[in-house]
Amino acid sequence: MEMLDVVDEEGNPTGMVVEREIAHREGIRHRTSHVWIMRWGESGPEILLQKRSASKDSNPGCYDISSAGHILAGSGWVSSALRELKEELGIDASADELHYCGKRTMYTESMFHGRKFIDNQVSSVFYMIRDVALEDLKLHKGEVDEVRWMTLDECKAMVRENTMDHCIFMEELEMLPQSPEEALQEAEDNMGAMSGQAVLYT
């Protein structure tokens, strides 16, 4: 049983907790961490996509963020992001590899496996630069079916035109850097944003 913090619109814990299943059944706001793994290719930035397992309780068989997961009650954004990287992909990463892009909110209502599924979440979005070899990844069975590299521009086009099964939001793709220079500038700009919320980002 996974217990999640109930949070306000900014992602601050309210002191109440809820079971994950109930949170999605009743649409109770909770937190998630999202990590985009990137590398710099000859045609521009590339992102690692994971294909969700067909048995997932939401968006089965869809292409998704490199790694994402719920933040358990009492846990922090960064520690949760690092835990999901290890659990889903077998990647050992350190906190200083995660670059903060920003925070976003999401509310969706869908039907999966014949049941209503409400996603009401506040997410902290990160990216990390690492040219991982697909064959070196250790995919979590039951969570991830496969992974693939795709250029950021190609992914944006496919999301915009809805030409692949996915659960990716354009807003999040637009948060990612387009070049090493832009990545460096974003890291400097966001340093203050994270230091101002040190308690949340542990």
TrEMBL record:
Q: Which residue numbers delimit the Nudix hydrolase domain?
A: 28-172
Q: Which UniProt keywords apply?
A: Isomerase
Q: Does the keyword Isomerase apply?
A: yes
Q: Which GO terms describe its biological process?
A: isopentenyl diphosphate biosynthetic process
Q: Which is a Pfam family this sequence falls into?
A: NUDIX
Fetch the Gene3D superfamilies from UniProt.
Nucleoside Triphosphate Pyrophosphohydrolase (3.90.79.10)
Indicate the secretion signal residues. none
Could you tell me the superkingdom of the organism this chain comes from? Bacteria
Q: Which Gene Ontology molecular-function terms are recorded? A: isopentenyl-diphosphate delta-isomerase activity
List cellular component terms (GO). Answer: cytoplasm
Q: Which InterPro entries match?
A: NUDIX_hydrolase-like_dom_sf (IPR015797), NUDIX_hydrolase_dom (IPR000086)
Q: What is this protein called?
A: Isopentenyldiphosphate isomerase
